Amino acid sequence: MELNEALHRLKELQERQYAYGAGLNALNLDGDTVAPRDTNEGRALAMSILAGDWHRQFTSPETGELLNFLTEHQAELPATERRQTEVLKRDYDKSTRIPQEEFVAFQRLTSEANDIWKRAKESSDFAMFQPYLEKIVAYNIRFAAYYDPNKLPYDALLDEYERGATTAYLDDFFSALRKRVVPLLQAVRERPQIEDSFLHRRYPVEDQRKLSDYLMSVMGMDRNHSTIGETEHPFTLTFNNKDARITTHYYENDLASSMFSVIHESGHATYDMGVRDEYQYTCLANGVSMGIHESQSRFYENLIGRSRPFIEAIYPKVREIFPEQLADISSEQFWRAVNKAQPGLIRTEADELTYPLHIMVRYEIEKRLIDGSLKVADVPAEWNRLYKEYLGVDVPDDARGCLQDVHWAGGSIGYFPTYALGSAYGAQMLQRMEQDIDVWGPVGRGDLTQVTAWLRDKVHQYGGFLEPADVVRNACGTFDPNVYAEYLEKKFSALYGL
Ligand code: ZN
Question: Which residues are catalytic?
């Protein structure tokens, strides 16, 4: 094979992969948004054929030969193609490493586990789910050995979600949080609680849609290249850097829910839309990892969106849309209300301060399930003990305890830590950004262009070209989990007068 021909085939392979992905995404999005209710059958058939072809093409011997050839000639490749080869080769090796029968059996197990988990959650019956979780843990331990037999099994699993993250790294990270955030939350609980009942007055959906349009314009989302839809759970789907779709869910008696979802999902979309043109339709076109993606969405949602200057800037418009509901509410009251910290049982309803503590519980439990020091049967008791210790709450039943999340039932172990890492990366990015530019002057006028330009320069443009750790280094220097703890201390001390 000639090098030029190989490079041509590399481009063609990636464009084909893009085309399959775009087709699947379009069908997925259609099913979740505008498709009539009873139309799943035909869509599911089309999707399973597309997904099968996609997988077969990628794992074919020809693809293997091409990637081997390019790897042998990597010194002669331009930087972009060298990186593409590296990323694709890693994915190829991974997808061919797990024996086919085991992979299929695991798919069957998780699909069944998912149904059982739903029923177990409905009846709050952990014993029903326990045998499935035991099998899922056992599979994950075996898969970890296929991924990398030289690593600790949990580290090999973490690598699937946040390349480069290790138990040692996360132990340091969470221990810094435990030392500072647990006492901070205790101090907050002893203060008078923030009044936020006005956020639960009646906010008609058609008016909330106007608010979404306004927030997307503040976020700089070009509506010729992005849309917003409505789904059960908000998400972002990006076809390429010129076509991003976000969704939200409106609750008539909860103003903040959709408001901050729209900012969060716009943050994900802004990341993907900031990736360089030259990486489009290749494996480098999207955000590099879960953790870095969450760092961007949470940056906009919490660090900017829940800041005093940002609320000051947007509040006149919010009140113009909801003049009666907010007639007696000042922007300061509004800012306090959207930052209320209150320990609860449910991760997805958690506020900015308590969220990382929910993740810490999950991290400690799944790490110990994989290293064998915790039995699946003991998960509920350990879960409840840790919730009491970190959040100070009593877990009344497993439905509101260890059965609340879908992740383990779906087979994912090692996923949770990325949520907390993202927030911590974001806090350190903000510290750096404040040294480089005037952040709060423009934000206080509702102008996010400088913020987005900084993030584009340090993070977004690279897409998958840099490893997650290199993105963090590029944007933050050496990662220091104390910066995040300090950020939380400063913010919540001010809010609660500590
Ligand atoms: Zn997100």
Answer: 265
